[in-house]
Design goal:
Helix content is 31%, strand content 25%. The protein has 352 residues and is an alpha+beta fold. It folds into three domains: 21-67 and 168-204, T-fold (Roll), CATH 3.10.520; 86-159, T-fold (Orthogonal Bundle), CATH 1.10.3980; 211-352, T-fold. The longest helix has 23 residues, at 276-298.
Length: 352
């Protein structure tokens, strides 16, 4: 009599259902003025939805902290009177601190205090004319990353000049994507991909059945290429879509903070590495640097892979780390920063 229940129990165990396998689901919303896409690999639909909502909420929170378009954003509410210390949220303080570090390392080619110059150019574009010299000079007098004071203990931000303001247009999307990725990983969902427009961050676990997340990138100057992300970020920058043409001259939306002038040479850059905010800011800085100055800039960012293409009066010039941002992941110590700038189809030329 005792053998029957055991036999039945054994048969139940034998036909027990296997655990559900992870599936990839994609979610898209509008945030930060662009399409934000989150891809999540998890067995349960409810878990995929919950973690995607968490990621989207983080992106929106970053927008509330960093936007220079929203009049109510924390960034816009910072006082512009020199010497006034303001307690900042963790998002705003962290983004500002990282921006200042990158501004220092790029010798001001990226500068989060560029806001007065950006505003002058926005007003000029609306009129279909270039900003006059006096306007640009006045804006430049209120720009300079060296004049931002940060107190990490008190978490305060202080401007050293009247009229200063922050602009995170060159770093905010990558920063938001990185924080959204970190939030998803902390929730126990490490297999994911976050795309805030052209700024992408991949979690440390690949989607089911694949070695990583396959991405196709293009910048409008070079040939499109594919790369495979895993626990990394990638960003592109250029004037493919955002520019203004006045009197036959093309003026990019990317501005050199040191001169106050928009870039005129066609330039595009792609950066890949461990941090989304850094990739975003470096892509902007590389456009300002151009192919000829890219090597010197990238030596301050070990392990980051990058390429930049410039079209100027001398023709097409291209520069890339070895390996470039395309292809599969590689160890940081394998990335080399060569001096050579090349003209496509020609021999390498030494950097000047």
């Amino acid at each position: 009599m005792l053998l029957l229940p055991l036999a039945v129990l054994g048969s139940v165990v034998a036909v027990q259902a296997q655990p559900a396998q992870p599936e990839v689901e994609s979610f898209t919303e509008i945030a930060m003025g662009v399409d934000v896409t989150v891809k999540v690999a998890a067995p349960e639909a409810a878990d995929r939805l919950a973690v995607a909502r968490l990621a989207m909420a983080e992106v929106r929170a970053c927008d509330d902290a960093l936007s220079d378009w929203q009049a109510s954003s924390e960034c816009r509410r910072l006082p512009r009177t020199a010497g006034t210390a303001t307690i900042a949220s963790d998002r705003l303080f962290t983004a500002t601190a990282r921006s200042i570090e990158i501004a220092r390392s790029t010798e001001g080619r990226f500068d989060p205090t560029i806001s007065p110059i950006v505003q002058a150019w926005r007003a000029a574009r609306a009129k279909g004319a270039l900003p006059d010299t006096a306007t640009v000079d006045a804006a430049r007098s209120r720009v300079g990353w060296q004049h931002v004071g940060l107190d990490a203990q008190e978490r305060t931000i202080t401007f050293g000049r009247d009229g200063m303001a922050l602009d995170f247009g060159g770093i905010g999307k990558g920063f938001a994507a990185q924080r959204a990725s970190a939030a998803m990983a902390a929730m126990g969902q490490p297999s994911h991909l976050v795309a805030v427009a052209g700024d992408l961050v991949a979690g440390p676990v690949a989607p089911p059945g694949k070695p990583g997340w396959t991405i196709r990138k293009e910048d409008g100057l070079g040939e499109p290429f594919e790369l495979m992300l895993l626990g990394e970020a990638v960003s592109t920058s250029g004037d493919l879509e955002q520019f203004i043409e006045i009197d036959g001259v093309r003026h990019s939306h990317i501005i050199d903070p040191r001169t106050g002038h928009a870039l005129r040479d066609r330039t595009a850059a792609c950066v890949r590495g461990p941090d989304g905010a850094t990739c975003d800011a470096l892509a902007t800085a590389l456009c300002v640097a151009g192919a000829r100055d890219a090597a010197g800039l990238m030596r301050s960012f070990a392990g980051y892979r990058a390429s930049v293409t410039t079209i100027d009066a001398h023709g097409v010039r291209a520069w890339s780390t070895s390996p470039g941002p395309e292809g599969p992941p590689c160890a940081a110590e394998a990335v080399r920063v060569p001096d050579a700038v090349t003209a496509p189809g020609a021999a390498s030329q030494p950097q000047r």
